[in-house]
Amino acid sequence: MLENTMNEEFASFPQDFMKKPIVIVGLMGAGKTTIGRKLACRLGLPFVDSDQAIEAKSGLDIIEFFEKYGETTFRETESRTIHEILNGEPLVLATGGGAFMNPATRQKIKDSASSIWLRCELSTLLCRVRRRTHRPLLNGQSHRKILKQLISERYPIYAQADITIQSGEQSVKRITDIILEKLAEYSTIQSTLSP
Ligand SMILES: Nc1ncnc2c1ncn2[C@@H]1O[C@H](COP(=O)(O)OP(=O)(O)O)[C@@H](O)[C@H]1O
Ligand SMILES: O=C(O)C1=C[C@@H](OP(=O)(O)O)[C@@H](O)[C@H](O)C1
Ligand SMILES: [Mg+2]
Question: Is residue 174 part of a domain?
């Protein structure tokens, strides 16, 4: 389940925020999987994507999983999988877009990890979800309509993450740099609050 990672500059001077998991939340197409993998690589930490973990465990891709078991079972499996992944070991976890909406999953993330919301405008999301991959919620309907609805339902909840990063047209490297700066800032504030 854990992907191999490569140590780059951060491994040589570990920071406080590397002592616990870093979890990325946000809507489909925000870049959670792409940025999460890059962030893990920069930090020399393992990377896990909850959708890929579910696929590996079930032997089904996400579309097949939804077709065979339905969304309710997917959500239960997603929550269980994330609880297993967040076992205290430092790593970077990219969640599926619906994971943080589950109250038990959200609580687990809040209690055991630093959470990052990759916030994206609708226009950017629309460009990024064009390819049919693992997103059955987008099947056969207007992507704009569905994403607009999900934005209104989910953004107030994603806002409960510890850190919000506005992710627009910047490169993956630039967004990763911004996350690293914000994480360092956040962990300094946390250590000042609870010495
Ligand atoms: N900063 C970025 N700039 C350009 N394309 C991006 C960026 N971040 C992600 N992408 C692309 O957007 C698509 C969706 O990214 P992905 O990481 O799968 O999002 P998520 O996991 O949030 O659904 C992918 O094709 C990815 O290559
Ligand atoms: O938003 C959602 O409910 C979902 C997002 C998908 O992951 P990404 O956010 O990585 O696209 C995947 O978990 C599944 O299709 C459901
Ligand atoms: Mg993803």
Answer: yes
